[in-house]
Amino acid sequence: MAIAFGLALVSLGAIVWCTIAARPVAGPAPPQGAAAPNPWVAAATRADPTAQWARKAGTEVTVTRARDADLEQVPEGRLDPRQRQVKVTVVHRLQMSPDDTLIEALRQGAGFPGTLQQAIDAAFGAIKVDGVSLTPTTRLAPILTSDAQRTIAQFTVTLLRQLDTDDLLKLDFSAPNAFPLIVTGRSIAVLPGEWTVLRLEGITPEQEQQERLAFTVGAYPVSMTLAPDSYGFADVVVEDDFSWATALGVLTAIALIVFLLRSLGKGWWARPPNRELVIGLSLAAPTLLIPLFAEEWSAVAYVILFVAVPLLALRHAGRVLPTSPPWNTRDLLIVTGMGVLVGLGMLIWSWLHGQLSGQTLLAGGAVAAVAAAGAAIAFSVDLGVRPVIVRLAVLSAEAAIGLLAAALWLRALLTGVYPPDSIRLVFALGWALIPISAMAVATKQWKRQAVVGAVLISLLVQGWPTEWLDSGSWSLAVPQQEPMIGSLTLTPIVRGVLGLLLLGFVMLVLRLRRLGGQVASIDNPVAESTMIAVLMVLYITPGGSTTLADIDVPLPLLAITSLVAWGTARWLLTGPRVTIVEPLDQEEHRRLVRAALHNRLLLVSEQDLYRYGRGRIGAGDLSMADFEQQRSALESAMNRHGRHPETAFATTAGCTPWHNGIHAFTVSLLLSLPFALVYGWPEGVDLTSFIFDGRYLITLPAFGFLFGYFYPRIRGTQPMTKALHLTAAALLTELSGYLSTLAEPDIGAIDKAQVVGIVVGQVMMVCIGLGLFWEWRTMHLAGEPWARVRNLRSVRSLAAPTLALVLAAGTTAASSAAGQTVDRILKGDQITTTATTAPR
């Protein structure tokens, strides 16, 4: 034992020695030339003092609407189609005499392009434009034009800004910062374009026209404010006492919370671990808002989300599950081996960037690993089991290497220079405990596959593979700007919260899977509430924003489509119902379908007898006695089989609700995929935004899932009549999101009709196609040919599906020629400020 403890202390001492010996890593080197002196200032000090009076500086500022070509370089997710994108082009011109010393300094371009901004600000002064910057300011290379009398240097600067549609645009013209001054006066011309000059500060115009404002200023700052031409100022701002957007939002939130609580069921609330989980999450939720109000306390929110909540979820799973995790030594070796690989990455970073020399790292790591392995052997040698001793030695060596890497990583964090992605990696691994615990609770068992999947999902929540594999992500430079969705910056904590929302939705679906294992769940109010909650979440339409602590935070606008989805789902499930005998297995389903086919044959035969009997009796081909005999035989046969309504085609066909729902969802999704060409494929800067953007692909399939899951409760007694009721419900829900847009007077009637045609065609194709599939599936499960209920040679039999296909094909073809207005409506890019925006 003395040897074992001694070797353990040696291993720990090697780790501590390496950590103390580690040197702070120098930060990223500044761009070459960034610190070089301004060549203009140096040349100005050598020039004749009277030369500045001979120079002439002119600036022309043009304000225009940003075009698509200008916005191509804007990072994905930063553009907000509800706001105004503005392009400000600044052209500076400096006129000099041929013998001016500044000309030679400009031609040499010392430090360009690094000193280009300094040179422009020194001569003309910086120009600041209000609004959210879409891209960094760009500066073109200077253009020199010379003749015998003068030389003109031209500098072009481009700025892209994003503002709300009713925001003012302020231009600040700073004073030149060169000393001595390069020019004594500046002539400035502003071409406002679609803007109107509202305020001038320190400016006396020399030319004042609607399309041009010119003035001259000296070495002092001035500013001006522009207002959009289309924006009017009300004399009195009337506060609306009632807002439909707020009312619908509150109503939707209340309804969604009620259904979420009902989806858990009374039995769930009766268990103490579940109540403790709810209390813990309720206490943790407000702390996640800390970054919005007190950014300096953001570390508390990070600790809560990535440490406290995962530990709470892990503890909850440990109390709920009946068994402990079946992890063995092999699993532990694999996990620690992956940790060693990550640790080696950190050790390589420490060596490459000089935190520790290669010899020190090798010596310290070898001593720590060998001593730790020796200590493990000394501790376990009394067991006498060689495999156990070897495994403990390997585990101890891996733990020593991992501890050394973690110590050097913490040392790098303290000095402020570290691999940027290492932080996100730690956050992702910590957050992964939440989905691991959630999957264990949902499936009632611990699975290795679930652990691997949860870790991969966690990595995707914190960034796409392109972000993780970026060549500079493990360099010295910390990322300067996080991706954005609208004006919401995707920090790790925001990504984690969005991931929790996505995980909550997945848990609802898994609850449907667990409840859908029995036919009795069709009438279970918990399953119904869960299904309605899923539909309402899918139909929540993003849009709008709110202000919290003077911070503009975009939030999902709880649109009317979510409420309509609730209403239509309830309408589908609460219709008049007949008594249905549910088959216990496939054999009973086959017997019920055959009996229904036989009963249908007798009914058709009776109708044919009455239809053709009159003509045959009149023609003498059939006597009254024969007619009565045939009628009596049919009556007797129908009495023996019963005259009850035909319900064999309104049952679950001997399958579980989950099984039926998955089949219906799959068929609906396949029928919806062609319309992705109309709406466009989903996009997103991370996993959660990508999935949220792709909701339009699964909203109709979700209605199909409802159709299959609760099929016996859907209005109607036949697959096609049920499909027609589903068409009405889905069509009303899909069109409800376009009501405010279709009422917009700025949109033409043809565009509106085209949009309605596209939506109607898609809904009919999905729902009617699903009805036909369900009819075929019911007959297929019964071992009967589909032709016995659907005569493919009959025009009447194919009328409904043919109409659906014609409408779908026609509207899809028409959409290929749709203009920008239709495309904007379908994709939700609207100019309206109403409470409801179009869902994708």
Automatic annotation (TrEMBL):
Q: Which domain of life is it from?
A: Bacteria
Signal peptide limits: 1-21
Q: Does the keyword Transmembrane apply?
A: yes
Going by the UniProt record, its keywords in alphabetical order are: Membrane, Signal, Transmembrane, Transmembrane helix
The portions of this protein that span the membrane are 242-265, 277-294, 300-320, 332-352, 358-381, 388-410, 422-442, 449-465, 485-510, 662-682, 694-711, 723-743, 755-776, 797-818
> Record keywords: Cell wall biogenesis/degradation included?
no
**Protein name, as recorded:** Uncharacterized protein
